[in-house]
Amino acid sequence: xxxxxxxxxxxxxxxxxxxxxxxxxxxxxxxxxxxxxxxxxxxxxxxxxxxxxxxxxxxxxxxxxxxxxxxxxxxxxxxxxxxxxxxxxxxxxxxxxxxxxxxxxxxxxxxxxxxxxxxxxxxxxxxxxxxxxxxxxxxxxxxxxxxxxxxxxxxxxxxxxxxxxxxxxxxxxxxxxxxxxxxxxxxxxxxxxxxxxxxxxxxxxxxxx
Length: 209
Fold this sequence. Notes:
It is a single chain. The chain is an all-alpha fold. It has helices at 9-22, 24-32, 45-54, 59-71, 77-82, 85-90, 95-106, 111-115, 119-126, 134-144, 156-165, 174-181, 188-208. It folds into 2 domains: 9-40 and 149-208, Endonuclease Iii, domain 2 (Orthogonal Bundle), CATH 1.10.1670; 45-144, Orthogonal Bundle (Endonuclease III, domain 1), CATH 1.10.340.30. It has 13 helices and no strands.
């Protein structure tokens, strides 16, 4: 099953129209940011490797470590399998993440076939790999594959965005976010992008106050 892709201007416009008709609060965010654009990430082993490296790190720290991986040409499955732990530690990985990237490299995944699968199948396959949880698998479906109906409810930024947008007293839990996001189906991924953009702007504004 090939899912609806966000990497099409026509599909994005359909999604924006749908969300505007379904949710007044999301509609207001779209009005504030009418020139909505989406950037495509790479897919396959390299994308998952980079996501694992970035887990629980600031953007700057993750980018710094990734640049060393690129410098040492450690961005392919073959190169990771050959790399010893001392090298991986020396360029910034923790021992735990050394195990995670090795585990990913040991997986014999047909990424072409995987990338043509439904989000459910992709997520179910990826979470079997040590070091890849549901959030990482969902982010892969959303950013690398451009699937239109994925909402990472465990994402803290999305939870904070929903708290601010709906004026909740506390950050909603994952189950509550999942329930809220159902209103945005089948364009949940687009709603996530809109909310991330909203959260970034709110955070930037609060820092400047």
